[in-house]
Every structure is written in structure tokens, then in C-alpha cells.
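Risk mitigation, structural track. In case the binding assays with pyridoxal-5'-phosphate fail to produce interpretable data, a predicted complex structure has been prepared as a fallback.
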Amino acid sequence: MSWPPIREELRGIEPYGAPQLDVPVQLNVNENPYGPSAECVADIAESVAAAATTLNRYPDREFVALREQLAAYLSGDTAHGITPAQVWAANGSNEVMLQLLQAFGGPGRTALSFAPTYSMYPEYARDTMTTWKAGRRADDFSLDLDAAHDLVKSEQPSVILLPSPNNPTGTALPPEAVSVLCEAAASYEPNGIVVVDEAYGEFRRTGVPSALELLPQHRNLVVTRTMSKAFAGAGLRLGYLAADPAICDAIRVVRLPYHLSAVTQAAALAALRHAPELLGKVDLLRAERDRCVDWLREQGLEVADSDANFVLFGRYADRHAVWQGLLDRGVLIRETGPEGWLRVSIGTADEMAAFREALTDVSATPNGARA
Ligand SMILES: *Cc1c(COP(=O)(O)O)cnc(C)c1O
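Fallback model:
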């Protein structure tokens, strides 16, 4: 019969993940193209060496020092303070969100988001046997707030996942929308929790506030962040959230003991000491992003407004052919989003020049035909 005896709904499913290819220009997974300085590397190495002397012992299960530093960092991004009791962390914000689904989702419960959106969300739902429901975004990828509100009221989801800025479209969510949906989710029993996934929060345009500002008003609001993107620490695997301490306590029930290794805690603490340096390229990347949007529009392409470090553009008759054409020219981008669209991450000025040159090239071939 069938081997291995995997859960029926998982049979034949390909594991999620963008192709990891060794090409000169990698603009496919929204990493920060700038690595740490020698000084930062030395500090991380020293901290990890110190942690290594204690590796016979389990790490601090409550990662107190790290929660303190993450709270201090977040407090710099909001008018009111964030306390360590409001902070939780795990191996990437993907793990944080899976833990949220483990604690607040489950059989008989529903998780809701609005497509097109992050392709991992339905996987957390599937893996926790939570019913998955996706509303639609408007044609410009913004949220139709009235329709979203009605859907929350009728579905009464236990978890609502709202990325802001959204991946793969780059669309930020106005704070009014977050408030309206938090109130809608608090109007039924048991309340739904609203997760604003700010993986790209640090890239938002000036004047766009963080959902952190709304935490005092809504106890069912959770704001997740990550060190993977703006913080230039994708290899670190450290994601975190800020929420009501009762939500952190609920996650403690489902987390695996000692889920954050001593090495991870030491490296993350060292990286946080270098936050100004690691985040120092954010302004440069934002300017490069705006240039990329302008340039793609000059080419007559449709381009989604972006508050993130990537840009969604199209539409192509055969997007795979365009993706492959770029790859053949040494530029790896991402084939994702609605049919006909492609997503490019913002790299260094040189990488973006290579991207523009390759796309100009491909556009001159039959493969570059527009939809
Ligand atoms: C990249 C990304 C994350 C972060 O994932 P990590 O597990 O923290 O690396 C979370 N949400 C969205 C929408 C993302 O694109």
C-alpha cells in the first residue's frame, strides 16, 4: 500500500520553499543584501563562544535577557513602552505563528486571511487541523474593509492573519483597518485574535504607523516581527511578537521546552547590540525600492505600491518564461503572487542594475510578452 503512512491530506504535497540556486544575483527571498560588519561578526562569535562553554546545560527556557532586549528594541518603535512580559520569541516568526495556531487554532476552529497573501498561512492551518478560509483583496491588493469586517463577523475565526506590509504585494494596512477587525474579532465568544505580521514593518514608508501603537487598545491584537528581513539576520532564525502577556502564557503551553538554543539566544543578543548598524541600510533599500517601482512603471508594467523590500510586477502572458529568462541571465527572482505577476526583492544598487538589464533583455524576446 502507500508508503510512508503519512496523514492523508499531506500525501503527495511538495514541501514549501523557494528554489535555493547558486546564481550571482539572488533577489528571491526578500533577504537584506548587506551582511554584518567585521566588528558585528566578532561580537557574535565571542558571544557564541561564551555560550558554547555552557552547552552541557539546557538554555534559559524563558530567554529572559533576550525578551528584555527585544522589548527595548520594540519600545523604540512605538509611543508607549513594550514590556518583556509582552514579548515572545521563537526560531523565526514562522515558528511564532505556528505556535499561535497551535494555541488558538485547532479542530473546529478557523483561521482567516485575505488573498493574495503569504503562502505559509494555509500551511500552519493545515498542520494544526485548523479550517482555512481566505477572503479576497481588492484589485489594487488593498483590503476592502467592509467586506473584511463582514467576513470576520460571519466566519468568527479564532485567528486572523494580516501581514502588513503584505507579502507578496507589499501593501501596508491602515491602522483603522486593524482596529475595526480587532473589534469585530472581540465581538464573539471565544474572541478571535488578530495577528498583524510585520515581517517587513521596518521598511514601511514614513507616515505609516506600526500596529504596535494599537496594543493598549486591543488585548486580542498580536504584532509579529522578525530579524530575518530588515535586521539582516535571516540565517539567525529569530522571530518574535508583542501582545497581551496572557497570549504569551498561552503559547508557553504549546511550545517545546528549550526551543531557543543557547547559541541562538547569544547570537540574537549580540545582533541586537548592533541594531543601528544592521538596520542601517533600510533607508538605502527603501530608496532603491522606490526607484525600482518607478523604473518598472516606465517600462509600462503594472506595479503594486510597496512598503516592503520587494516589488510585485506584471502582468506577463507566461511569467515562468520571464522568470527563467532572468535566471538564464544570472538573476533569480520569485515566481509568486497572482497569475502573470513576479516578485523581485530589493538588492544592492549593482544587483538592481543587473536585474534591470536582464529584464530589458528578456522583454525584447517573445518570452517577455505582456498578458
Ligand atoms: C519572510 C516572512 C516572514 C518571516 O519569516 P521568518 O520565519 O521570521 O524568517 C513572516 N511573514 C512573512 C509574510 C514573510 O514574508
